[in-house]
Structures are given as C-alpha cells and as structure tokens.
Queue: 2 jobs
Job 1
Amino acid sequence: MASTIRVRAINNGDTTEVQALIQHPMDSGFVKDAKGEIIPPHFIQQLTFEHNGKTVFLADWGPAVSKDPYVKFAFKGGAKGDELKISWVDNKGTSDSTTAKIA
Amino acid sequence: MSAAKKTAMSVTRNIAFGAVLMIVGAMPARAASEADFKAAMSAAEAAEKQADQLRNKWLTTETQLAAAKKAAAAGDFDAAIAAAREAEALAIASIYQATSEKTRWKDMEVR
Amino acid sequence: MRKALPLASILALALLAPALADDKPNPAADQKAFQTYFIKRFPKVKYEDFVNGPYSMDAGLRKQWEEKEEFPPYEFAVETGKEMFATPFKNGKTYADCFANKGIGIRQNYPYFDEKEGKVVTLELALNRCREANGEAPYNYLKDEMASLTAYMAFTSRDKKMDIKIPDDPRALEAYENGKRYFYTRRGQLNFSCASCHVQSPGEHIRSEVLAPALGIMNAMPIYRSEWSGMGTTSRRLVTCNSQTRAVPLEPQSDEYRDVEYFLSYVANGLPISGPGARP
C-alpha cells in the first residue's frame, strides 16, 4: 500500500526544516453522515518524528485536527543525508511509517 | 327605583354579561381555524410557485413554508398562519427581485 | 384577503425587458472592459496572478498559501483523479476515448458551445456524458469523484491559457449573454449578485473570508477548500454561493450555471489555468 506520509526535510546549517502531509480521514466522531448517523471517530492519536534514534517532534492529537493534516516544524541538528523516521498510530490501532533523507 | 332593586338589576346585568363572556370564551377563536390556514398556505404556495417559474426562490421562503406545515400538523394554526403569511411576503419579495433585476442587472455591469 | 401579485403586471414587466435590451452582444468588448477594470483597480497585481483569487489580494493569506503549495492539500485528489481517468469502463473504453488529445491538457478549452446541441458544454457535463455513452452511471456533480476527475484534468493544463471560443452563432451569443446577465443579477434574500462580491468588493472581507476577483475565478477550478476539507467542483461552488445569498440553488449543470461558467471563462481568456486551486 502506498505510504500515507509525504515528507520533505531540508537542512539549513544548524537547523533542519521539516514538512509533512499525511493522508488520514481524521474523523472527529461528532459529524453525522447523510443518513443522520454518527461517523465513528477515526483519527491519528500519536505522530512521531525521529532523528538518530531521538524523538525530535511528538504530537498527541485528538478530534480537533482536520482531515489530511499538514505539519511543519524545525529542529536543531540534522545533516544532509541523515535519515528521518516518521510514524503515526490512530485510535483504531492502525499505523504507518516512512523514512526520508534530509536534503 | 329603590336601592335594593337597582342593586338586584346590576347584579343580574353582571351575571348576564358574565354569561355572555363565558359563552364567547368557549367558542374557538375565529382566526385560528384550519380553513384560514389552508387559505394562507395556498396563497403562499401560489406565490412561491411564481418565484419558482422565475427561477428565483429564496431559502428563507422555503423555511417558512416548512415551519407553517409543521405548526399546522401540530394543530397550532396561529403559528402556522403567521409562518404562511411570512412565506407569502418573502415569495412576493423574491418575485419583485427577479422582475426588477431583469433590467437593473445592467447597473452592475462592467462596461 | 391577500392576493399574489397579479400575473398580468409581472408579465408586463417581463415583456418590457427585451425592449430595453442593448445593441448586439459584443463579447470581445466586454472581455476587454472586464480585464481593464481589474487591472486598473489593482495596479500592483501581476496580470497572471488574478487567477490566484484571494492570494492576489491579501499578502498574509498569500504567505500561508505559498507555504502550503509546497505540499498542496489537493495532491491526493489529483492522484485519485489520475487513477480514475486511467481506469477503463466496464466496456473496455476509457475517458481518453471521449476527448481530444486523450483528455490531457485540454481543460482550458472548456466550456465550449456545442453547435449541434445548441448549448454550452462544461467539462463536468462532458465527463458525465462520456460515462453515460459508455454504459456507466453519471457522477453526482457535487461530490468527490467528479471533483477528483476535474482536478486531474485541470492539473494537466496548468499554465496553459484559458481559450474559450464563442462561435458566430446567435445561440452561442445568447448563451454568453445569459451567463453575463446571471452574473450581474441580484438574487437571494441577501440581494447579492456574483458581482456584488467579486466585482465590487475583491480583496475585502466577508465575515472571515477574503473575496476573490471575478477575473480568472474559473481558472483555479476545481478547488480544494479547507472549509470543505476536500476538493469541490465548480458546480458545488456555484450551488453554495447561491445558498450563501439565501437563494435556493438551481440544479447543478442547469443552463444558467453552464452559461455563467461560459461567460466567466471567456472574459478570462489569456489568463493561465491555475487549477486545481487551494482555498481557505
């Protein structure tokens, strides 16, 4: 299955800037469908970015985050060619992960 | 006339008056009849139909028509008639808008 | 007892309208006037930039948009659209068989006036007709499938210039005029015309939204709206714009909608296709 995570990481000397777009319905559990029934909650609960085995970004998400979330952040360190590991787990226990090279 | 007789007459009058009031109060209020609602609704729907032919219905007209039907179904003809009259007024306004806009649109045109 | 407005007086007013009608329609002159109006009003906006809607009007919004364009939210819809476009129908044919150049890089030619049918044909309409001609059920004009398909087709036409033709046919001129009239006519309880927002007030706020200029507004279609958390078709936008003025929307792909798309696309001839667009 194709990865749900698109990521780009660019090193600027001291810091590395990371952008990621994740494909996920992020259903809050508060929205009703056309029949009037609640669409069950289905959202990412934890999102992790790791560099050299160390967590550089950790997000604990809930129903407030919208569909197909986009994340952008920067961290100190990282070098061109280094690997960045991104993974998420949702409330149904589904998960996905990918690795990207820092450019 | 003696004082006693006057008092007796006024009491009788009051009782009679009271009886009339009670009879009137027991009758259903004239404006809240289903027939009146049907007439108001019919007028509103006819106006909305004209607005539809002009391809210019308003959402608020539709909301009022629905509210009128709902109130009537619950037996509240006062509210139903009020909503139907509001719907008719909105429909008439939308008809006026469509008709006057047939020429007034040019006021907005970039030339 | 109340009566509805007498039908006779309404008819009288309606009949009076053509008598006040202008001389022969001149779309080329309209187009020039339309483009000049926006160029003059917004001298700091680069010509091609009008197609970026609110981002050509508001610097803060633009910055957020430029960042998001590195990872655009419409990427998924374009990919889905590409897959759908390549998937054969049950009878073995594909969308490519219905369109010129196999359907690639042709979006800027839509809508066009079909002289056989005597009506304007939009891209959404053409796609559904392609489906029906090949034994498939048409897609709902307001939902995801049509949005993904048109997003993909728009994407293949990125940067090509809008190129709408009005043949020398009185029916085509009439369709163009209908579209123009629709655009400028006030509707709904709020009494706005499309022009109220997009000609009189581009760059201004309506509640929290920044209004886009009408020039090039079709060039960015279909659009991924954050408000919709997804991609939406031109049909969807026209329907929702109607509801927002408290007008009962017409059926998607009604004559009026097809004609207004025709008008708006024609007056933007020469401007690049920027679709699919991302909007708040």
Job 2
Amino acid sequence: MTEALISIRDLEFSYNGDHRKVLQGLSLDLPAGSITAILGPNGAGKSTLVHILLGILKPAGGQISILGKSIQVYTRRELSHLIAFVPQSEYTAFDFSVLEYVLMGRAPHIGMLQMPTKNDIERTLEQLENLGLTPLARRSVLELSGGEHQLVLIARALVQEPQMLLLDEPTTHLDLSNQGRILNTLTRLAERGTTVVYTTHDPDSAARTAQYLVLMREGQVLSSGEVGLVLTAQNLTRTYGVPVRVVQVDGYPFVLLES
Amino acid sequence: MKSQKPILVITLFLLLLAACSPGGSSSVQTSEQAGAPDLEQTQQAELTPGEKPAQISLTDANGNSLSFEGPPQRIVVAGKAGQLILHSAYMFPEAVERFVAMEQRKQRDISMLPLVDPKLDEKTQLEKDAAAEQIAPSQPDAVLMKTYMAESLGEPLEALGISVVYFDLETPEQFNRDIQVLGTLLGNPERAEQVLSFYQDRLDRVEAGLNGLAPDERPGVLLIQHDSKGGEIAFKVPPEEWLQTMMVQLAGGEPAWTEAAEGGGWTVVNFEQIAAWNPEKIILVDYFSDPEEAIAGLVQDEKWQALKAVQESNIYAFPGDFLSWDQPDPRWILGLEWLAKVIHPERFDSLDMLEELKTFYSEMYGLDAETVEKEVLPLVNGDIDL
Amino acid sequence: MTAGLLLVFGLSIFIGRYPQPYWMPLKLLGEDELARQLVTALRLPRLVAALMLGASLAAAGNVLQMVFRNPLVSPGILGVSQGAGFGAALAILAFSSRGLAVELSAFVFACLGLALSYLIARQLRYGGWVLRLILSGIAVSALFSAGIGLLKYLADPLTQLPEITFWLLGGLWGVTWREVLLMTPFVTLGLLVVFLMRWRLNLLSLSEETAFSLGSRIGRERTLLLVSAVAGIAAVTAVAGVIGWVGLIIPHIARRIFGASAQATVPATILIGGGFVIFCDTIARSLRAGEIPLGIITSLLGALIFILLMASVGARWKP
C-alpha cells in the first residue's frame, strides 16, 4: 500500500447531548496519490467523518495525523492548502458567475484584507479549461445543470491547489452520463497525483473508479484496503445488513441484492 | 438552546424599566373625602333658599345641545390642553367651588392654579391622560374637554351617562363663543360679559391703533418656534389656521411663512428658507427653554447676522409667564397687544405691557398688585420691556 | 460611477431654498456673503452627512445580505436601525446632550438588535432560514420602535427627546459640521473594513462548511464585518434617525448592474447609496418651503425602485 496521506486511529465522536456514539474506535489510512472510496449505509457516519477531517467537528477521542503530523498542529489556513472539500451540492442565494464562484477557491492563497491577483484569475481559468468548463465561465451558477454544478464545485476545490480532494457523495443525485463524467474527472486527477477520497452509496462505480475501498457501518470500519480484496459478498453483506452477491462481468465486480 | 430565553426576559425588563415614568404620578382620591361634604353644604348656601334652580341650556363647541337642571355643581376638566380650559374657567369665581377634579399639567415649572384656587389641595388630581374610569369616581355633573378629545375621552364618558361639554378656545371668535358657554354653564353670564368686554376693549384698541394702515405698511413677520429637544435644533412655523398666524395678522403684520405652513401642526423649516424669506421682524417662541437665551445664541451666529431682522435688532422673544403668551390660553390677548407693539412700535408707544399684565391679572383673576408682583412678575420672560 | 456621484454632489450644492426655491446661480457665491455661509456651514455638511448616510446604510445592507445569505434583509428589517435609534434616545435622556455617548449607546443597542434577530430566528421552528430571519427581524424592529415610543411618551417628562417623527422618519435638518465630525470615525472605519474585506464577503455567503474548508476563520471574519457594518449604521442613525429602504434596495441595484460578487458590489453600493441619499435629501430640503422628513422620500423612491426591479428583467453589465 502506498504511503498514507492521512492516518486515523481510534476516532470517537458523538453529538452534543447524544449518548449514542456516531463514531467509535474508527481507524483507517487514506493512501496518497490514489482514489479511495468510502462506502456504507445511511447513518454509518460517513458525513461525520468527512466533517471531522475538515475540522468542522471536533472528535471526542482518537488521533488524526496528516503527513505524519497531528491535525491539531495545523492552522485553518494550512489545512486548506492540504484538503479541499467538494460538498454534495451547494445552495447560494446570489447569482455569482461561474468564474467568480470558482475564483473563491483561491481563498487560502489570498489574505483576509486582500483582493485576488491576476495570477489567481489565471489559475482559475486554467482549472476551468481543465474540466472543460470554459464556455460556462460567464454563466450564473444558479443556471447550471446538476453535472455542471458538480464539476464547478470540483473546479473550485482544485484551484485551492490542495494535496487531497475530499468529496461528499459527488454522484448521488446525478444521472448516468453525469456520473460518468465526474468519475472520469476524478480518475484523471488521481493520475496526475492528487489524492482523491470520496463517500458514496454506489459500490459498482466505486469498484471501477477507486483503488482503495473503506467499508463503514455504525461508526466503525468493517474493512479497508485494495478494492479487489475488500469488495466481497461477505463484507458487503455485513456492511449493509442484507444478503448480497458479487458477480464478475468483463472482469469488473457488480453487486446484486440477493432476492 | 434554553439559554436564549434569559436574554429576552432581561431585554424586556430593561425596556419596561426605561418606560417607567419618573414623575407625574399622583393618587386618585376617592370622593369619600372630608372635602366633598363641605362642598355640598356650600352649594346649598349659595342658592337662595326656597328657589328652584333654573334650567340651563347651551350648545357647545361640537354643536351638541345640553341642558342641566341648574348649574352643575361638580365639574371636572380633563384631556389634553385641559390646562387652557381651566385658565379660562378660573376667570369665574364659581370655579373655586364647582371644579372638583383636574389634571395638573404645567408647561413651565409652575402652575397658576394655586394662586387662584385656595381649595386646590382638596381637589382630586387626575393622572396625566386619565381615562373615563379615573374620572367617573369624582361623580361629575359635567366634564369639560377640548373638542378633539371627543372620540378618545368624550364618548366613553357619555356612555357612562356623564354630560360632556366641549370647548375650542383656539381663536378669538371661538374664545368669544366659549366664554359665553362657560358663563351659562356656571350660571354667571354677567361675568362672561365682563370678560368679553375686557377683551373687546383691547381688541378695539389695537384696531384703532392700526387705523389707516396701508397694505404695504404691514411688515413681513416671521414667527418661529425654536425647538432644541435632544440637542437637535429645529425651527418650526405654525399652520395658517392657528392662533399664532391670526395674531400676527391682527397685530398688523404680514405672516411671511404661509407657503411653508402645511399640515396640521408645526412644520420644520431650514435656515436657508428663513434666509430666503429674510423677514423684517422675527419673533421667536420657545416652549421648553428660555427664548431670550435662544436669541442670544442665534445672534452670535454669522449666518443669522446676515439677516435683515437681526441687523436691525428686530428679533424678539415672545414673552410669557406661566406659559408662553402665543398659545390658545386667555393670555393670548396679552400676546396680541405685545405683538402690536413690536410690529408697529410707533403706533403703540403708550402701551405699557407691564401695566397690561397687572390689569389682566387683577380683572380676570382678582389678584391684587402685591400678589402679582410677588408671584407672577418673577416668572415673566421674553422681551416684555420694550 | 464615481464621476456620477461627484456630479450629483456638485449639483446639489447649488440646489436649495435660497435665494429662491431650487437653483442658486454660481456667481452668487462670489457676491453674497450669506450665500457663501449657507453653502459652507449648512449645505456642505449636510451633503457630506447624506453621503455618509447613504454609503453606510447601503454597504451595511450589502454585508448583512451576504453574511446572512438572504437578499431580503436590511438594517431596517433586522432591528439594527431601530436598535440604534433606541440607544440614541436612551442616551439623550440619560445624559441630556449629544456627544460621543449617544453614538456609543446607539452602537451597543444596534448590535443588540442584530443579535436578538439572529438568536430568535434560530429558535423559530417553521419556515426556511430566509423566512425565519425576516420574521424575527421584523419583531425585533417593532420592539425597538415601540421602545422609542415608550421613551418619548412615558420617560420624557422634561421633553428632552425630539419628536417621534424625527426618529421614525429621519431628517438631516439639524446637521452641522459638528455632527459630521461625530459620525466620521465610525463611518470611515466601518466602510474601510468592509471595503478591504469585500472579496472575503463572497466566501461568507457560501455554506459554513465550504467557507471553513477554504481556510476562512468564519467566526472572526463574520464578526469583523458585522461590527463594521453596524458601527456605520449606528453612527448615522444616531444623527439622522431611522432611514429605511436604502440598505435594502441599493445592494440589489448594484448587483443588477455589476453582478453578485461583493468585490464589485461593495464599492458600487457605497457610491450609489451615497448618491441616492444626497438626491433624496436635496428633494427633502428644497422641494417645498417646509422640510419633508428624509425617510419619506427614501421610502417613496426606494419602494418604487424596488417594485420596478422585481418586475423587470435585470440587465447585467459584464466587464
């Protein structure tokens, strides 16, 4: 396994006043330079894990280290140079243009009282170009389709120039063609050295896109490692709590519900 | 998130604290007081024994016809500007006996009532803005108030079966009519005649003094209220229909501000407009502080020094004693005489305002010269000595 | 843009009631001493005050709308203006004069108004965030407006407070250089901070997660922006009373013309807001012999423009 960008050990978390532990004794490694998919049923704690990685939630116990250093020594600014977040969707009340919107991703590189420089704008245009979004540059973000919106969010994350992209269910509400588009983009990014970690519901596309897989259930990691090894019928049945079968078609695994 | 509630409670509490009035409260005495029976007895003594009281009918300022079996013995004055009705009422000797409850509002620091009513302490002091509930316990035979109080105070009282008599007393014409109503109400129409002839004499005198005045001999006069509440200085002009405007005209002046006098109340004008009018004479009214002080401040200001009226020392402070004389109060006659003297000094050379003041208090309120000297003169401010 | 503002400012110097209604000829300044004094001692400070008033309210409205992610809020809707008015009235009663204390008290209560609106909105259970904030804001505004009324009628035995019409409708008729000086530190500081952070404002209008992950210290940045915005509002409201609609519609106009990014709209709101209030105040002091309360003019024109905006299709100017 390649070197871990992020290591998590014995993570514990529960919401205020809630006795139920959302995450308990969670340990996993997120390898650098590859795509890791985090799979699990609703309520497994995937989103919570994402929020803790971003520093939005504070864990009750356990350690997280990034590039060998504890997450706590990093400032907010430094973290934003390391991890870029792509939410599932984002609502804004204002009709920014796509260019203005993606430009906001340069925030880690711009001081609190400063304005974006020409350099910032150039980088933004570059990323738009990379993702084939240039024709949309002047369009309002409120007028984008689901797939375009998701790509724009990815573009914004990329202009941060992070080491890792963290996506929260990027394909959940997209149709097939858009799903393919997103996953292809992620694959290309990983090929160029960006670490990609995303949560998802869909084991099939995870199997095809990701190199590493993490299975979560009720706040714990059931299994993690290379996709081929982890994606077994037994693991999946334990994860989802219903019997499943894994069949191979053209060398790719597909997950079917046992009727 | 229960911690938010205390914030709300504290805020409301603070607001309520802030709203508590620091003064002006007085207890409402019930009519079961030592004073009441005395009044009854005195009432009986005044009427000729054996004579049945004659019926009284009158029409008040709102056009209502009322009739009483004999002059009402228990009268209450209430509502806004009740003070001004009281000042008219105390020109009649019956007021001391018959007026049993009133609001004690003062414009300046001192009220005149203690001087003219030796029985004032026995009477019920109503709270500010007293409502029908507070007035009814005084068991009035009649309640007097201004016409604009009809809806808020008059109707509730009438619903309780209490007779309400409305007054205007805001223009010379209304004054004429309403003093006669007071005379009828108090069973002393002769006194009303006396009062009115006193006023008419003075009106005639002013008119005579202005005899032969050509239209172009009427100087442009600006009467402004200087309002400095809360550090915000505003200059305001009165509406055309108000007494102030009428008095300026009666005194032989030409009101300079009528184009700005819109709306039902005082209208703010800025200095530019005053400069554009550049009137010959400026009369400054101030209800809440000393108008002479205000003028002293203004004439130091370069902008005001550019005005014609200031350059020729034709800026005057409207005089007053217990209250400024420009208002719809019996003292308006003094205000009018003073205005005539200010606007046409050469025609009213012989008019001595201090003498007029003494005569006024003597004939209208029965105060002797010594009392006037001691109690009234110290209160007089404004440019009365001309 | 700036040229437009200078034009409005420049023209307004010559409009007034002296020597006759509306226009004062330029040469009069050379001849008439009084005219010179009128312009320097009355018109100029008043114009500067109007400029500050418009700029502060409009920029603050822009900040509020973006920080609360709600294009329908304004200083008047969130209880900020009314809180400032209440604070000022309270201070006048307590200290019976105008000075720094009034401005500070206005500031404290303006912040209180904002905090209350926000906290109550969080407590409400129905409706989306946009609706909740507006509802609670209206309630808090009403609370402080009533508070001003209470202060005036119950707690003012010496009648130290100006009339209620002044507080609720606003007016600049008493403004001299002294008032301008009082406002200047708060207004310039507030506007400066908002101006410098104008790009950052965009980030705050996104979701908290996103802003967080972009490295923004949300709490600190938001507080800084809100405090600056409220400082400006409080200072101008303490002098001029509660003026409505400017904080609501000027940001909308700016967005229509320059797009949604605060980098462009903040300077635009400052300039357009300043020009708008100068325009309204010039009407208020010159149209008729008597002064018309400023709030009436801004509400009238503001509401009209608002209706037009909502009804029409906006054109965007792309640089």
